[in-house]
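Researcher: Good morning. I'm working through a list of sequences from a screen, and I'd like to move beyond sequence-only analysis. For each chain I'm collecting a predicted structure so we can compare shapes side by side. This is the next one on the list. No need for commentary yet; just the structure.
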Amino acid sequence: MLKTIDILLGISVVMLIASMAVTVLTQLITDVANTRGKHLARGLGDLLRQIDPSLSREMAEQVSRALLTHPMISHVGQRLGATIHREEFTKLLLDIASGQTPRDDKNRLSDSARQILAKMLEKNGIEDPATTLENVRAYALQLELSHPELATNVRHNIALLQEANSRLVAKINGWFDQTIDRVSERFTATTRLITVTCSTVVVVAVQLDTIDIINRLSVDEGLRNALVQKAFALDLRPRDTGAPEKASAVSRPKTPPPSIDAPLHMKASDGTTAMPGRSDEPKGKPAAAPGVLAAAAAPPLASISPADKGRSDVGTDLEYLQDLGLINLLGSSKGWLKRWHEVNPIGLILSVFLLSLGAPFWYAALQNLLKLRGVLAVKDDAQRRERQSPQTSAERPAGGTPAGLPVTGERGILG
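Model: Good morning. Structure tokens for this chain:
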């Protein structure tokens, strides 16, 4: 049973490392393409057309882009912002319609577009956007003086309901949350497509054949031990080096991996497996090859930034798999093209599917398999002790004959 668990652990380690590379590529593409901002701009444009059906799609997109490139909302370089709150959306509409945006804003609405926006607001109960906005700000300030315990968004929401009570606010409050839900669904669908694409690129670039890996793990005990050791090292590594580590549902102490020079596991006097320096650890870690143990047990470097460390960890882990011969990085060897005739296409397709599950899935699978392996190791040690311990005299019958053996020879008649 432990062999099966070790095989599953080895697959989880390989998929987790490859999934981290896919995650890095996916984040890079979504950031460069600004997919969050584009989907949000489309959603806000749909909301504006819902408020005023006579508004053209081009005009709605122009207003939504002006909102998301506002200095208080946009990203660096006036890229489309990816977050906007309902109160911000309402007040910025009033702000843009009143012409209070900076003159040097390259995405500032033209005078004709601003007049169209002002007419839309007027049809929905806001005749003077500038005065209404000033009243909202003044009332929010009064609420801050009289009720400082209220949150900022609560104060501004109350101020809008009090000073800008109109069909515009009613429509925005009624449809904003549903619009954001649709935006999230579209962004998720796009991200999944990007993830599948990046998974395909990674699988082809490293020639990741899942079927070949399973076959090798089934017959190579040293490879299984090396990947199980790597699983322990990955479990000790913080998931997000840029933020404090969150407490897991099952609290367990985080202990550093054993010294590289020390034996990875040894036999106790009773035949059980024991870790050096960890007498309370029942499961033990299997021995790994000396050439790959250093990469698995090396402590993380503290002299580099968290973001650079995350990227360097992915590169180091991929090189680790390359040293084990599980992958073949593009450009790392001259035999990359020649090895394609050995690759199973079904194994590549299976790898793409498994990588598409994402790094969080494989990290959770790795943790669960490590817990299960610990339970099985405890039972295995208990059974080994039971087999190796001699039968005590208390377990023998009174006559001295071992239980279960037939009594031979003549027996006298008692009494």
